[in-house]
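Before the break, one more example. Copy the sequence into your notebook; we will annotate it together after we see the structure.
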Amino acid sequence: MSKFHINKNGVPALCRAKNGNCPLGKHYETEKEAQKIADKMHQERFGILGSNLEEEKKNEDSPRQTKVSSNQDGDKSKKVRETKEKRNRDNSRKAEENFKKTKGGPKQAREKTHKKARTIAQYKSIERRKTSLKNKPPKKIKKYIDRCISSERIRSYKKSNRKSGHLVEDRSYRAKKIKEIFGIGNLVGYYNVNHYVKSKDKNPTEQTIELRDTGQIIIYDKTTKVAITTFVINRDRAESMMLYAGEIPEENWLKKVKENHLIAKENKLD
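Here is what the structure looks like once it is written out:
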């Protein structure tokens, strides 16, 4: 059966010596019993400080022991409390600063931050897609992504009721056939576009473009607001025009535009 003795530091400890070979003398059946004798020895030797000294020696003698004293518990709780209080003060200070910056509460500050993050992410996505379009295999003619200089969506557009002679005389059949095959469709938006109308043009032209969800566009003269021509565009042109306007078109819609352009091409309406 295991027994306990009081070691050289005056602390109860388990005796690991073989029977009769322990140099420390008297042994006790339990640690509690040995602790009582040790306390008595320290009180006789050191007075009322004896028990505290014994406790400190015991902690030094048993580094593997995981229990902490009540004082250590108190210190730990105090640190946790101080950390929480500091965090709360910092959060209050930041909230007050955000309130002053945004002239609103924390919610407005978060919304402003999220909006900025969304804008940056959208910009990066737009730039990646522009690069992807520019890196597509070259064709015989200059790609629209390279011909387009800028594009801007406008909220509303008051177009003229008049039509250009080109649209009336040369494109009336095309306009009628597009309506017959694809219908009127829904308005996607109006865009002020600065682009090279043809690949060989030396100077860009500013025009207003009406974009329908069928892929049909109607081009207006920016000054007179007269309709010049209409046709069904390809996917790259639709995507480029919207990307330059800071918009990311949906993939399903782009697929629909591509399908409609192939149909229009078969009917010579592109």
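Residues 96-135 form one domain. The chain has three domains: 4-61, 96-135, 143-266. Try to locate both features in your own notes.
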